[in-house]
Design a protein that fits this description.
The protein has 218 residues and is mainly alpha-helical. It has nine helices and no strands. The chain has one domain: Alpha Horseshoe (Serine Threonine Protein Phosphatase 5, Tetratricopeptide repeat). Helix 1 crosses helix 9 (197-217), helix 2 crosses helix 3 and helix 4 (62-76) runs antiparallel to helix 5.
Length: 218
């Protein structure tokens, strides 16, 4: 699959919903170590709502469909992380407003806008043990794949595979950081050695995007 078309969004978001159902208990446990244990439930609600929205709005342009999915997430999961992910999808959708499909260039734009929206809303910077520590290397990887494609576009499966690897490295790096935001910040040094729960959500999204495109290509 060299691009994600409008008709691919419903199965992609159905896959995201399945992933967050499967990872619900893991996220609850992870969040419970230095948080309030609701992340798994929140993301389950958010991506269920997003999947329903996308399935309902299949006739809409890609950008509009993504914006509506973000709005559905915000309504279904009005928590901190729910709001951040909703903002990311709404910003990404706005950036792709006129895109007929999502190829490598559009995917780079998607994650750049997603990152900007979350950073602005959450007031976080790289190195503070947040979702930004996965989103920043993820967006940078896609930008690099596009720039290094020797005048042509890097294939979407390859670009997303590298991006998922960058996201995994970013997630691993959060283990060596001390939390600076949210309830986790109250635990300070106790957060050392733990991967950030919000960053884990971003990694799961990146991994799902990559797997979906790779499997569709096979």
């Amino acid at each position: 699959m060299d691009s994600i078309r409008r008709e691919d969004l419903a199965p992609l978001f159905a896959r995201l919903r399945e992933v967050f159902v499967a990872q619900r208990d893991f996220l609850i446990d992870l969040d419970g170590k230095v948080g309030d244990s609701d992340l798994g439930l929140t993301m389950n609600k958010a991506f269920s709502a997003a999947s329903e929205s996308v399935a309902t709005n299949v006739a809409e342009p890609i950008g509009r469909t993504l914006q509506l999915a973000g709005m559905a997430m915000a309504k279904a999961a009005p928590s901190t992380m729910g709001t951040l992910m909703a903002t990311g999808f709404m910003r990404a959708g706005k950036a792709l407003e006129s895109a007929p499909a999502i190829g490598t260039a559009e995917m780079a734009l998607f994650w750049s806008a997603f990152l900007a929206g979350v950073a602005e809303r959450g007031k976080a910077k790289p190195g503070e043990k947040t979702v930004i520590d996965v989103l920043a290397p993820l967006a940078a990887s896609l930008a690099a794949s596009l720039a290094d494609s020797l005048g042509g576009q890097a294939t979407l499966p390859d670009a997303l595979k590298k991006a998922a690897q960058a996201a995994a490295a970013g997630l691993e790096a959060t283990k060596g950081m001390v939390a600076q935001h949210g309830k986790a910040a109250c635990f300070q040094e106790k957060t050392l050695g733990l991967q950030d729960a919000g960053a884990t959500v971003a990694f799961l999204i990146a991994e799902t995007f990559s797997a979906f495109v790779a499997e569709s290509q096979a």
